[in-house]
Amino acid sequence: MSTTEPTDAATPDGMTPERLTLGVAARLSRYLQVLTQAKKMGKETISSQELSDYTHVNSTQIRRDLSGFGKFGKRGVGYNVESLVSQIRGILRTAGQHNIALFGAGHLGRAIASSDIFADHGFRVVAIFDADPSKVGMEVGPQRVRHVDELRAVVEDEDVVVGVLAVPPAAAQALADDLVEAGVKIIFNYSETLLQVPPEVTVHTSSPAVDLLYALYFYLT
């Protein structure tokens, strides 16, 4: 399984700094998640302490992370939420729209398809696939479930950049292989399968059990 590689990021003044470390990229993503929710709630400004309360990242670290890309906040006022959302998206290169193909039209797949979590960050589910004939053709939100045999054509026609696997473990590797062959470079894996992919393909595996173990460790210590 590959790991996430640091990426180049452009500063607000157009200069390109050193490649982001994994730690900085991960923290910026967490800030963006909080800021996006704050924006939806109508919040116009937010302080580094408030960001710290929601992300559990030290406020000094937050200010250090953000100051590396320009002067975003004002002392005593905080950060403008909308502006900071835009700036961090630019740094992480997530501005604009990115198309997703979702695999699995079961309970998890339907929940993912109906959630705003991807849309909030500029990702759009443009296709949903399943191998079960009883699910093919059903409507999930605005999408009609397609058979996995259509994968390659849809990836090309819809310019899919991310494949999301919400399928049983036994089906995950074969689908990952098909996505790699179709040219998809990012796979978000909700199954427990340890996927084998080429080094140029990024796999992120999301596991509630791992997240719970992580939280439990810090609770017990």
Q: What is the molecular shape?
A: globular
CATH topology of the largest domain: Rossmann fold
Residue-averaged pLDDT: 84
Tell me about the biggest sheet? 7 strands, mixed
Looking at CATH, the homologous superfamily of the largest domain is NAD(P)-binding Rossmann-like Domain
DSSP strand content: 15-25%
The secondary-structure element order is HEHHEEHEHEEEHEHEEH
- Enumerate the spans where pLDDT stays under 50 for 5 or more consecutive residues: 1-17
Q: How many structural domains in the coordinates?
A: 2
Number of helices: 8
Helix content: 40-55%
Secondary-structure-derived class:
alpha/beta
Strand order of the largest sheet: 6-7-5-4-8-9-10
Oligomer: single chain
Q: Report Rg.
A: 19 Å
Summarize the structure.
The chain is of the alpha/beta class and 221 residues long.
Tell me what you see in this structure:
This is Redox-sensing transcriptional repressor Rex. Homodimer. Residues 30-69 bind DNA. Modulates transcription in response to changes in cellular NADH/NAD(+) redox state. This protein is α/β, with parallel strands linked by helices and 221 residues long. The chain folds into two domains: 22-91, Arc Repressor Mutant, subunit A (Orthogonal Bundle), CATH 1.10.10.10; 98-209, Rossmann fold, CATH 3.40.50. Helices cover 40% and strands 19% of the residues. It has helices at residues 22-40, 48-55, 59-67, 81-91, 107-114, 151-157, 169-182, 208-220; strands spanning 45-46, 73-74, 78-80, 98-103, 123-130, 139-140, 143-147, 160-165, 186-189, 202-205. Strands 6-7-5-4-8-9-10 form a seven-stranded mixed β-sheet. Strand 6 and strand 7 (143-147) form a beta hairpin. Helix 1 (22-40) packs antiparallel against helix 4 (81-91) and helix 6 (151-157) crosses helix 7. The longest helix is centred in the N-terminal third of the chain and has 19 residues, at 22-40. Mean pLDDT is 84; it is low at 1-17.
